[in-house]
Amino acid sequence: MKIAPIDIAHKTFARKVMGLDPDEVADFMRDVADQMEEIIRERNALKESLRQKEMQLIEYKERDETLKSTIQTAAKMSDGIRADAERESKLIVGDAHQKADMILKDSRDQLKRVYQEIADLKRLRMQFEVNLRTICQSHMQMVDQSHVTVPDPQINLAQAQAHLGSGPVGKA
Length: 172
Fold this sequence. Notes:
The protein is mostly helical. Helix content is 84%, strand content 0%.
């Protein structure tokens, strides 16, 4: 059975001969009741403080869990973003390599075409030179033969005058 401070303060005892001094017992009982009441108030205050601390602890634990969850989510997002960035960078580098290879191939093809054009032009030049030499040689031969087949105009004039007499050519 629980005893409250009020129970102590109002407790009465039976009297006996040569018993206790009732005033002294009553004073003591009041002191005990007052101290007990103070202890109960302190206990209730401690219980309330404990309850508040427990609520704060629960709140802090919830915050801690929320923070942990947020950190984990942020870490996952960061890893995802990093993986996406790495994948994208690999794609960009691969695309750049492909473009570089295409440019290099095109450049080599263009260089081959230029070399081919140069070779063709050299061949055309040589052919032109050969043709020009042939034409020049042909003209030189024609000039050389024209002296043989075409008489010297001075010689022919003298012979014509001799045939016609001593007059100028063309008088008849």
